[in-house]
Structures are given as C-alpha cells and as structure tokens.
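REVIEWER CHECKLIST
Item 1: Sequence provided? yes
Item 2: Single chain? yes
Item 3: Sequence as submitted:
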Amino acid sequence: MSEGGEATAGARGRGARVSMADVARLAGVSSQTVSRVSNGSPSVDPRTRARVLAAMRELGYRPNSAARALKRGEFRTLGVIVFTLHTTGSVRTLEAIAASAAEEGYAITLIPVAAQTQDEVLGAFTRLGELAVDAVIVVMEVHLIDDAVVRLPPGLPVVVADSEADEHYTAVDTDQAGGSRAAVLHLLELGHRTVWHLAGPQRSIAAERRARAWRAALRERGLPVPAPLHGDWSAESGYRLGLELAADPACTAVFAANDQMALGLLRALHVSGRSVPGDVSVVGFDDIPEAASFLPPLTTIRQDFAEVGRRLVAGALDRLRGGAAPRGAAVVPTGLVVRESTAPPRR
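Item 4: Structure as written out by the authors:
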C-alpha cells in the first residue's frame, strides 16, 4: 500500500492496488499535485484538479485518510461511548451528536458498553484508541464514571453527558430538576393534592435527578410524598406499574419519568376503567415525536436533544483545539408542553 492511498481498480484488474503515482501518470501531473488535490488544497488550478479527479475515478483510487491524518495530526473523528441504545434519551442524544459532528466535518465512531463495570469503560477507551479518534464523548445514564475508583484514561479530551462527574470533566446535561419541578407544579396548580411518581431505574442519573426534584417540590408545599414506583424506561414497565397506580383510588395525578412509561401507564389506566384526564392526570418527560399522538395527547417535558448534542460536540472540539473548556455541567433548559392528558381533579 502506498502512503498516499489505495483502492481496487477495475481498469487494472480485480485486486490490483492503485497508488498516487498511478493517478499522477494518468493525469499527467506530479504525485505532489495528486496529494494536494487529495487534501483539498486551494492552490491547484481548477482544470488540473478536474483532470486529477477524473483519473481518480477512472482508476478507482481512494485517498488514504489514515496517512493524511498522521500528517495533519488529527483523524477528524470523535469517539462516542454509550451504555445503552434502548432508551429514547441515548438514541436521540446519539443522533444529535452525529448531526453536529457532521456539521463540523467530523465522523463518529460508536463503542457500546455491554456491562456497567469499570473494566468495560476502560476497554471501550482502549478500543477507541486502536480506532484512532481525536476526542471522546461519553453518554452514560448510570453512576459509573462518577465513582472514586473510576478514572478515565488521560491523553484524550473527554466530554460527558448526564454525569455528576462535573469536577473532573466538561459535562452537558438537560435541566432534569427544572423540568421535573415544572411537571409537578403544573399538576398541583390544577388542584391535585399530591403527585405520584413513576420513576426510572434506580441506578440512572437522570431518573435519580427527576425523582429528587419531584420529591422536593412536594415537600416544599408540605404535601404527602407517595412511594415512587421504579420502572426500566419501557412502556411495558409503565403498564405493569400503572396497574398498581390504577388500583389506588386516591391516585389522581402521575408524573412519569419518561414518555414511554407514560404510554404504558395510559394503557393500564384505560384497561382499569380510569379515564385520563378525568380520573387521573398524566405528565411525561422527553416529548418524543409520538407524544402528541398518544390517546389522549400527552402533556410532557420537552428535552432539546439537538442542543445537547451540539454542546457535547462543541465541548469536545474546544478541548481538542486547546481551548479552556469549562469543568462542570452546562445545563440545557427544558420546557413544559401542555396537551390533553392533564386537567383539574374531579370534585
């Protein structure tokens, strides 16, 4: 393989390798000119550039991005370590990271972490090192990198999402507390005497913050705090736990920690003969695209995933370029979206 690039050239036979010199000979230019075209140099005459590009297409030549990266000292790739692809938050955050990275001219390399262990996280960093990335974004919903025994390897700029490791890394988080408080106060202002909580997994940072804010909002007003029920973010867990809530006649308002569990809760209330919002008001969290099509349309807390992704990528690139990216969390605001699943309680 030449330093400049390689490809399988149909014009030269299956399996043959095409070098920069081959392109130069066909285009009638020097190898240095081919190199400048490959690297996007503006110093090449447009007619010469067109001739070189035509030769590349004819021979099936593809520039070697690894060799170019070594010369530039960067790979134009961001590594993303993610614990799960089964939750709305992780998937939409990942989509936003990919879109923002592309706008900056960067690709992403995704490394899923199979288990919630330090070894798995360190192994993910090792794999990213082998794949050559410029910086790392960590998207994890569990308490792992926050533990005192866990230290991410040095040498790579690191930005984390939804983490409490604010003292050590640049972090970006949705305003979990503010959104949860807005959900609870909305229900209380409608006249409900308290609010039940369908919480997320106990190890989840986002679920913990939402539950903490729900509890605090009730205590500030001197209201009773019902025992929370912990689901796993899925609609199925929302349905299963929703049957318990539906069986309690005192339950008139529920704040669900995400929209998927709220969907399961709506089904459980329906099959139990309790109307929404007539008997029970429901508020979710996320504002997934389908939330407006639930029956009834779901009142929920909107997360700005696009802004979270933009700030994560911007933080990674600031650290990469030697900027003084701040330690601590940048908080992205949330907003209450009122639809038809909430109403004053029956008198």
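Item 5: Key structural point noted by reviewer: The longest helix spans residues 88-103.
Item 6: Recommendation: ____
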